[in-house]
Design brief:
The protein has 843 residues and is α+β, with helices and mostly antiparallel strands. It is built from 25 helices and 33 strands. The two termini are 45 Å apart.
Length: 843
């Protein structure tokens, strides 16, 4: 990086902030130029190219914002852009992420932080240029590829040709440049290539098309890839890459012949086969594959991969695609999926689909996959029947509290049913455990081990009662376990199969049950949720204790009917609730609603009630439901609405406090002025108090207004002028005429206008009527077309010819000039019988 002074363009709409930042940066050795709008920044960059960095404010007032200005500049010139803002909101920061920027600095940061950020931006920009150079080298590497590379137009015009072996070119290079593809190549091949170019024009790229072409090297198969060159505002150009895939085509032909041979072998296995060219999407099947889904090959031909997937069940298609992707990525050695396919007559056929990727393209992409389809509908039916039997067995286990278990003496492993695992406290999601893990739970292990040895070695009956300490919970349980030895066909023992049952004292079981019921009741109370069941045959309901509590009823009152619940619904909701329950009963719909009730004790509550149908034998026999007391939630809603209603009052209070603080600042300045004797210091403090007073008037009017973001010129300037004149001892002798219209402006511009008016009238009161007892002041402000014109004039002695806003050394006139620029306005002095100052700003 150069050690010379860096030139920085500072884009900042706040004039005072721009002056301060420019001064700080120049002390750190930078050359700084400032502009106040995004449009000016864009125009200046177009004129000058000597800037090294742009410091860009995001919120630039009217006109384009900082991000748009940066985007326009970067479209014309590469420069590092560093954003400055007083905002840290995520949505503001996110706007800069869309621009190639080199940092984001909060305005309140110190000059040290800003300097470090600028230096970091220069480093990042240097890294970007190095990266761009690297991209150029990569492009050179791309040019060294052995493929044929052509730059062509949308009409097929050859603009550039690159080849490491000209014997692969259909015609010599001079015969190609300046001519179109259809003029050079055979019609069928030219059509293939032009179709790929048209696809790339629409989608940006095209891959996979192949053709055979006689070239000097001999007949060769080529595969083409076309990519559109991004060049805004220019005609479409494309990179056409032709790769010699003759060797691959030979391999494919060999594979095709081998597949035909294998197809003949597979025909006798009653298994369907399929072949899928992943690159082109082409598929092929044998007759058995079509028969599985009830079709003939003629009915399915041609069958694309989209038609194939259209036969698949939507749920299984997602699983199938996932398994294919995992196989193609190398995660799975082969593809295997059980899925459903729609038969021609409409029913679903279960198919075991197996496949394997046989080849890839030179780039490593999947090319050819082969597989089989096997009808497994009958097997799935048997497995479903087995699962149903297992489910019934599990339910029987739960009812009988019996747990099944098996012990493999060779592997010393233990398998248990869910109930057996539950009793032992083992992980129900684990398939098996070592016997030592299970036996570690047994209290009298030696006795149980001996019983197992007697069964294995002496074939003695295994029927034993013992205690265990359940894993995890540490609960002591008593178990009765019975088992027998299972032998193979040769009579050799292979495993032990048994059942076990927990027979801990009935009292402990009853206590545990009572405890669980108590906990459930507590959970209902904590959640304020009550459960209920309606028997549609008897029209009677079964309520939980919490349901009684919500309705303020005594659980000992007896079995309630449906009407006992509906009678507590407020009349406005009773019919709707009954209608919703009828929809559950008659149409099997679900009920979900919020209703207002009046309990037996007269309390008004809101409940959230849901209900669903329960079917037995194909009919709805019960309605299951729950209700929850949501009164507190409803009250919270009312509180939120009340808080929203208080928002306006809070905002007014904020403005009121700001005004009070400003009053305090004004009072402090007045006290300070009264405590010193130096006239210049007193005058400076009085001027400062006057400027604060202009802002006090603004906040006073905002406090009184309905809209806190803007105020009319009349409501603000009229009392401000009276306040300024009254601050002077001779104010009563000065006549003031005011004319303002109702044009509204935002707070930011009103504040700047108020300070300017304060300075102008203060100057009039100090200097215009020297030596006179009376005088007149005219203050006018009105909208003219798309601008505001404000004038302050007097009939005083007049302002000296040498005084102007640009070159004056006085702070007041400099402040007026600076604020006028911030408003993007103009100001002029008209001399005559008195003085008139005219301020013009655009809307």
């Amino acid at each position: 990086m150069s050690t010379g002074r860096k030139h920085i363009l500072l884009v900042e709409d706040e004039a005072l902030i721009a002056l301060s930042e420019k001064s700080s940066l120049e002390r750190y050795g930078y050359e700084v130029v400032t502009v106040s709008t995004g449009e000016k920044a864009v125009a200046l960059i177009e004129e000058r190219h000597g800037f090294d960095l742009i410091l860009m404010d995001i919120n630039l007032g009217r006109g384009i914002d900082g991000t748009e200005a940066a985007a326009r500049i970067l479209a014309k010139q590469e420069l590092p852009v560093l954003f400055l803002s007083s905002h840290t909101d995520p949505e503001i920061v996110d706007k800069t992420e869309k621009i190639t920027s080199y940092g984001y600095v909060v305005k309140s940061s110190s000059i040290t932080v800003l300097d470090a950020s600028i230096k970091m931006a220069f480093k990042l920009f240097e890294a970007y240029k190095n990266s761009k150079e690297l991209n150029n080298r990569l492009e050179a590497t791309f040019n060294a590829l052995p493929d044929l590379l052509f730059e062509v137009g949308l009409d097929g015009m050859y603009y550039d040709v690159r080849s490491t072996d000209e014997e692969l070119l259909y015609k010599p290079l001079p015969d190609l440049l300046g001519k179109r593809i259809p003029e050079v190549l055979p019609p069928d091949i030219a059509s293939t290539i032009m179709a790929a170019i048209a696809e790339a024009e629409e989608h940006g790229k095209s891959f996979g098309r192949q053709y055979e072409l006689p070239v000097p090297l001999g007949p060769c198969w080529f595969e083409i890839a076309v990519s559109r060159i991004k060049s805004p505002g220019k005609e479409s150009r494309f990179i056409l890459m032709c790769r010699n895939v003759s060797d691959r085509k030979q391999v494919e032909e060999s594979l095709r012949a081998e597949r035909q041979r294998l197809a003949g072998i597979i025909e006798g296995t009653n298994i369907g086969t399929w072949e899928w060219n992943v690159a082109t999407g082409e598929t092929a099947f044998n007759e058995r594959w079509a028969e599985i889904v009830g079709y003939t090959l003629e009915e399915l031909s041609p069958l694309s991969i989209s038609t194939w997937t259209g036969l698949c069940h939507p749920e299984d298609l997602i699983k199938s695609k996932s398994l294919l992707e995992r196989h193609f990525s190398g995660e799975l050695p082969y593809y295997e999926c059980e899925s459903r396919m729609r038969h021609k007559d409409g029913h679903w056929v279960w198919v075991l689909d197996r496949g394997k990727l046989m080849s890839r393209t030179p780039e490593g992409k999947p090319l050819l996959a082969l597989g089989t389809h096997q009808d497994i509908t009958e097997r799935m039916r048997l497995e479903q029947s087995l699962r149903e039997n297992e489910e019934r067995y599990k339910k029987a286990e739960l009812v009988a509290r019996l747990g099944g278990w098996e012990y493999d003496p060779v592997a010393n492993s233990f398998w248990g049913s869910d109930e057996a695992k539950r009793i032992y406290g083992l992980d129900p999601d684990s398939g098996g455990f070592s016997a030592d893990e299970v036996m570690a739970c047994v209290v009298e292990r030696d006795r149980v081990d001996q019983a197992m040895i007697d069964l294995l070695e002496k074939d003695k009956p295994y029927d034993i009662v013992f205690d265990i300490i359940a894993r995890g919970s540490g609960e002591r349980k008593t178990i009765n376990s019975v088992a027998e030895l299972i032998r193979d066909a040769e009579g050799k023992p292979i495993k032990v199969s048994g059942v076990l049952q927990e027979i801990t004292r009935q009292r402990r079981l009853e206590m545990a049950l009572s405890q669980r019921q108590t906990l459930l009741g507590q959970a209902e109370k904590l959640g304020r949720i009550g459960a209920w069941v309606l028997n549609l045959d008897t029209r009677k309901q079964d309520w939980s204790e919490e349901t009684f509590r919500v309705l303020d009823l005594d659980p000992a009152a007896g079995e309630p009917a449906l009407e006992d619940m509906l009678n507590y619904f407020q009349p406005a909701y009773r019919d709707a609730a009954l209608s919703a329950l009828k929809a559950v009963e008659l149409r099997g719909e679900s009920m979900n609603g919020e209703w207002e009730i009046k309990t037996k004790s007269g309390k008004r509550r809101w409940i959230h009630m849901v209900a669903s149908p329960y079917r037995e034998g194909g009919r709805i026999s019960h309605i299951l439901g729950s209700l929850r007391d949501i009164t507190a939630d409803k009250l919270a809603e009312l509180q939120i609405k009340s808080l929203l209603a208080d928002k306006e009052l809070i905002l007014k209070e904020v403005h009121h406090r700001i005004k009070n603080n400003m009053d305090m600042i004004g009072s402090l300045l007045t006290l300070q002025a009264s405590s010193i004797a130096e006239p210049a210091a007193v005058a400076a403090l009085q001027d400062a108090r006057s400027r604060v007073q202009s802002m006090m008037v603004l906040y006073e009017k905002l406090y009184q207004a309905q809209n806190y973001s803007e105020l009319t010129l009349e409501r603000y300037l009229s009392p401000l002028v009276d306040e300024i004149v009254s601050n002077f001892s001779h104010g009563a002798s000065i006549g003031v005429e005011k004319h303002f219209d109702a044009t509204a402006l935002d707070m930011k511009r009103l504040q700047a206008i108020g300070i300017i008016v304060n300075e102008l009238i203060t100057n009039v009161m100090k200097y215009a009527f020297v030596g006179r007892r009376a005088g007149r002041i005219w203050v006018n402000a009105a909208r003219v077309d798309e601008r505001i014109e404000l004038s302050v004039s007097d009939d005083g002695v007049g302002i000296p010819e040498g005084v102007n806003f640009e070159d004056s050394g006085g702070f007041g006139l400099m402040l007026i000039n600076t604020l006028t620029k911030q408003l993007d306005g103009s100001i002029r002095i008209e001399r005559g019988s008195g003085t008139k100052v005219v301020l013009t700003i655009g809307l």
